[in-house]
Amino acid sequence: QVRQYAQEKFGTAEDITELPQEYKDLEKRVDQLEHLYHQLVKVTKVYATPNYDYPLGFTNTVTNQIALLAHEHNSSAQTPEHPKTLSHAMGRVASQSASELGKDEALRAALSRFASAANKVGNAKLTMDHEVVARFHTPLQTCLKTSIEGANKARRVVHQKRLALDAAKTEYRETPANKLDMARSEVEQAEDQFVGAVEEATHLMKTVLEDPEPYRDLAEYVQVQLAYFREAHEILNKLLPELQEIQKTQETVYRALMDDE
After folding, report:
1. What does each C-alpha distance from 175 to 13, 14, 106, 193 come to in angstroms?
2. pLDDT band at 62 (very low <50, low <70, confident <90, very high)
C-alpha cells in the first residue's frame, strides 16, 4: 500500500481503481454538510460566551478608569458584578440614576420602570442563550462527532482498501507465471474487501444526508429565538405606554412652564 500510495502521489501509478460516481457525489454532499455544521457551530459558539453582547473591554473607558482610580483609596470597595447582557447594563444605569435623582419624581419613575423591564429582557436573553446552546449548538457538535465522523471514518477505510486493491493488482502484473494463482486470489480478496467498504461507506453517507437532524435543529433555533423575541415584545409593549404616559404628563408640565414665562 505504501508503494501504491507513493506512485499515485507522484503520478506514476497505473490502473487506479475508480470509485463509483454515486459514491463520489455522496462524498461531495457530505463534505458540504460537514462544512455547514462547522460554520454553524463556530457562529453559535458565541451564545456560550458570557457577556458577549456587552464585553468587559467595552466598559474600559477613560471615564471608568478615572472612577476606578478615585476609589482605589477605599480598599474595602468591592468591584460591582459585570452586567451579564447589554440589557442588564442599561437596567443598571437606569436604576442607579433613578436612585440618585432625588426630587425628580417623573424621571425617576420612568427610569425605574425602564430598569425593571431591561432586567427582564436581559434575563430572557440569558434563557435564550442557554437554550440555543442546549438545543442547537450542542446537537450540531454531537452530530459532527458521531454520524458525520462515522461516515468519514468509513471513507478512510475505502481509501485504504482501494490502495490495497491497486497494490494487489500491481503485484499480480509483476508476478511470475508459476505464482499467478496466489496473486489472483489476493486480488479477488482485496476486491471483495474494497466493494464491502464502499457499500458500508455509501450506506453511512446516505444515512447522514437523509437524517432530519439539520431541519430539526434549525426549527429548534427558530423556536428559541421566537420565544425570546415574543417575551421581549411583551415586556416592552407593556412598558411603552407607561413611558408615553409619563412623557405626556411631563410635556404638559413643560408647556405650562413655558406659557408662564
Report:
1. 17, 16, 99, 21
2. very low
